[in-house]
Design brief:
about 425 residues, alpha/beta, D-Maltodextrin-Binding Protein, domain 2, 5-stranded mixed sheet, 4-stranded mixed sheet, about 45% helix, disordered N terminus
């Protein structure tokens, strides 16, 4: 998701080379980006502050330098507001030409509505070689590309090594019982686990991961097609979450805590050593670093995968996450596709990593990753037998919203596990 789950700059010469490769060196039609008059585009992303915002400002400026007939207007929108504003713009026919794409069921709905451009033939051979089929498939539906990924964003638990050591937690938990034991020890150092449930989706992440452990891959995949959540594993996931939450591992006031905005957010609590860990996607290091007192990376940050849970049908090494990407709206000019190819080049991807502390999809750019916690993410990702997308992304906006609200109601004591299952089944029935 979002969500979410962002400074080196590329040389103009490199940009020009990308331009020639993407454009084939020939004249373009009236929708082109060279030789046929000025082209204006609007670009929506979700990096509203810090190095992430600076990265996109610089990336767009460099692209415009190499394409002097292209002008791109940037709009940075808070992550939690982006989906609603984008859907409104798409439905009204006023969509930005370039926009942040979460993929999954949300993208499928855009494709079905004819709101996103098929860029299959616009992805260059250079891009395909640098990124690889596996990552590019995250932006495809039935073999056609409607987005390109910019970052690998698997989820897991981000933690303070110093607080763990102080509490006597010597190694990251690998089982649910170990996680419960660690949380008990960590209470002496503050909140064991930071949770920004005000934004709903971070709370729902806990249900997602319990479902990843409770449900088989076949069950997760089947639900993408039939939107039926009657399998007992969905109930088990809710029961596991309820039992875990009853031990009160989360920060005080977690229901009114935001996820990413300010020192009092869940990411801010980790950044300022007020909480020991947070369950979040691989965009979290960048968010945390923007909220430390010196706005630099948290020096003792670590990562471990979500632990195994007894009695489930899911593989204990399975990973959940996504690959944030970007799409072009249906009527976007060829320059939009050129921009998508450009943001996947090695230099830009290295700059993306430095800005967001997130894993780049360009395999050549992954060589610059130095942080131990990101290496841990790559290790878990590469060992995973399968990777599921975030469930609210996978199952679409209606089911996702119902799921997110249902989980928050459960944690707030205003609902039960049966209520979650009923809510998502009802939402699925409505389409």
């Amino acid at each position: 998701m979002a969500p979410r789950k962002i400074f080196a700059v590329a040389a103009v010469a490199a940009l020009s080379a990308v331009s020639l490769a993407a454009c084939g060196g020939g004249d373009e039609d009236s929708n082109g980006s060279s030789g046929s008059g000025p082209v204006s585009m609007e670009f929506w992303h979700n990096a509203t502050t810090g190095p992430g915002k600076e990265f996109w400002d610089k990336t767009v400026a460099d692209f415009q330098t190499a394409h002097p007939d292209v002008k791109i207007k940037i709009q940075a929108i808070q992550n939690e507001d982006l989906d609603g504003k984008l859907q409104t713009a798409l439905n009204s026919g006023a969509a930005p030409e370039i926009f942040f794409q979460r993929g999954g069921g949300k993208m499928a709905a855009m494709v079905e509505a004819g709101q996103v451009k098929d860029v299959t033939d616009d992805i260059t051979a250079e891009t395909k070689q640098a990124v690889g089929d596996a990552a590019l498939k995250t932006g495809q539906i039935e073999g056609k590309a409607y987005a390109v990924p910019v970052s690998i964003l698997p989820g897991g638990l981000w933690y303070s090594k110093d607080l763990f050591k102080k509490a006597g937690v010597e190694t990251p938990p690998t089982t649910l019982d170990e996680l419960k034991g660690a949380a008990t020890k960590l209470k002496a150092a503050g909140a064991p686990i930071a949770l920004g449930a005000k934004d709903a989706w971070p709370a729902a992440h806990w249900y997602y991961f319990f479902a990843l452990r409770a449900c088989s891959q076949a069950t997760l995949d089947a639900a993408t097609k039939d939107k039926n959540f009657s399998d007992p594993c969905w109930t088990k996931a809710g029961q596991d979450l309820k039992a875990f939450a009853d031990a009160q591992p989360f920060n005080e006031g977690f229901l009114t805590t935001s996820a990413q905005q300010g020192a009092g957010s869940s990411a801010g609590l980790v950044a300022n050593h007020k909480a020991s860990m947070e369950l979040m996607g691989a965009w979290d290091p960048g968010v945390i670093s923007s909220l430390t007192p010196d706005q630099k990376p948290l020096p003792d940050l670590g990562f471990f995968p979500f632990p195994s849970v007894p009695g489930g049908q899911g593989d204990p090494a399975a990973i959940m996450g996504g690959a944030d990407g970007y799409s072009c709206s249906t009527d976007a000019p060829k320059a939009c596709s050129d921009f998508l190819n450009y943001i996947l080049t090695k230099d830009v991807q290295e700059a993306y990593y430095k800005a967001f502390q997130a894993l780049p999809v360009n395999k050549q750019a992954q060589g610059v990753v130095t942080e131990d916690y990101l290496k841990s993410v790559l290790d878990a990702y590469n060992k995973a037998p399968y990777v599921s997308q975030w469930l609210d992304t996978l199952y679409g906006q209606n089911v996702g919203n119902a799921l997110n609200v249902g989980v928050v109601n459960l944690l707030a004591g205003k609902g039960d596990v049966a209520g979650i299952i009923k809510a998502v089944n009802d939402a699925a029935a409505k389409g």
